[in-house]
Write a structure and sequence with these properties.
Number of strands: 12
Number of helices: 14
Shape: globular
Largest sheet: 7 strands, mixed
Bound molecules: 4'-deoxy-4'-aminopyridoxal-5'-phosphate
Amino acid sequence: MKLANRISHITGGGSDGWDVFYRAKQMIADGIPVLELTQGEHDIRTDPVILDAMHAAAKAGATGYSPVQGDPALRAAVAARIEAATGVPTTPANIQITPGGQAGLFAAHHAVCDEGDTALYVDPYYATYPGTLRAVGAIPRPIMTRSADDFRPQAADLNTAAAGAKSLLINTPNNPTGVIYDATTLDRIAQTCVDHDLWLISDEVYDTQVWQGTHISPRSLPGMAERTLVVGSMSKSHAMTGSRVGWICGPEEAISKIFDLANTTTYGVASFVQEAALFALNQGKPLEEQVAAPFRRRRQITLDAMEGQNVVRPIPAEGAMYVMLDIRATGLTGEGFANALLDAHHIAVMPGESFGEAAAGHIRVAMTVDDDAYAEALETLVEFAQTLATG
Ligand code: PMP
């Protein structure tokens, strides 16, 4: 039986640059020790205090259906957190709880794109983006960025791409580049949205991982609250990736329609998970900083490892749990370098090409192993690159 085109075409087809990743997994399955610096997953698990809250909630009976728009107390806590961080008046009516940021990205695009609409995203991009846009029936259109601009979108590229589009998806702090969009970049993005009447989908799942500069939510810029859907998540901020809990924050009308979508798809998020999320948010900044601390340390380890050489050029590591390294001086592609590093030293990193054309000749390193192993891996990586560059 023939399946619908929309689901058949979620993946773009062809090589997606994930071969190195699967090869590393196979090596591990074959008993070869590989140091994995690939996926965006913490090396710690969810804090036991959060698990205790989850357990207590479940034992107390929070195991039935939950309100589909989300537990009112959690929505209030998310709204308060957003209002405190941005100054934008935010109430529970602006919040829909979702099973993670990924479901939020899908629902947000489903809310603003009709079948066949053009949906913009920035290249390099988080790997699921084009598929998410295709899954809602939209046509993905990349906005190219350049290494020399630290992968921040430029006005001319934004304007050219925006003609005839319906929405623009951005992500700051950014996966895969580790860059945080500064005020100038965000003003430029906001202006493009206003000029071309675009919805802005702002993926802010890394909002607690800020190492340099500040994270500005574009919803706080003039004229943007009415056209912005912010996607948030407990995954990265509280090491709750497996719990699947996040949110969309946006205009009331959009949120009420996204509730209709939730009613026909997810039908809510587990109550005991929501109670655990509420408990975690109520711990405030100290817990967020505790979860972010290892990445802050490893980002410094990265900068130290880069000193005194110019073969490997780091893209400014301002936020998120990744660093993007320009390895073009080795003469290899990102894929070539990642494969060679895996073979020679059993260290797995992601080729830039996995995240789009713009990051060709780069690699993304996830700072997701303990400090000592991380420092050693970075030292090995730099030495390896130097050997390749000198021939
Ligand atoms: N956006 C970005 C940029 C991500 O890196 C991820 C996860 N790696 C997500 C969204 C989705 O996260 P989750 O569904 O776990 O909230």
